[in-house]
Design goal:
By secondary structure, the protein is of the alpha/beta class. The chain has one domain (2-65, 95-119). It has six helices and four strands; from the N terminus they run E-H-E-H-H-E-H-H-H-E. The longest helix has 14 residues, at 7-20. It starts with a strand and ends with a strand.
Length: 120
Amino acid sequence: MVGHSAGSIVSSFMIDRLVQEGMHFESVSFMAPAVRIDTFDKRVRPHLQTGAVKRYQQFHLTDRAEQDDGSCGAYRRSLLYLVSEAFEGGAARRSLACRSSSTRMVRRCPTRRCTRRRGR
């Protein structure tokens, strides 16, 4: 299963449902995942711990690259920051793509099942 940005939100719910239906995943890869940490913890992490998801890989930009990304026009930062800070009812909710969040996530994963890679 591969999910990019907001696709990681949909993928998280799909993984949870499909595992409940008996499916297993050899690997799950999220690229710049916009999924909230609490959603990942509820929908994906338990399946990493049981082995229903054998491997998880995550790809994201460094925090500096996210801060310097001007693709959102006047906002002057990346779309992930816009989603995590502006569209959550005024409360900053970190997505899995934030460096500090992903570092904690990898530390809590079962041994050798989770990796993260960052660019720039």
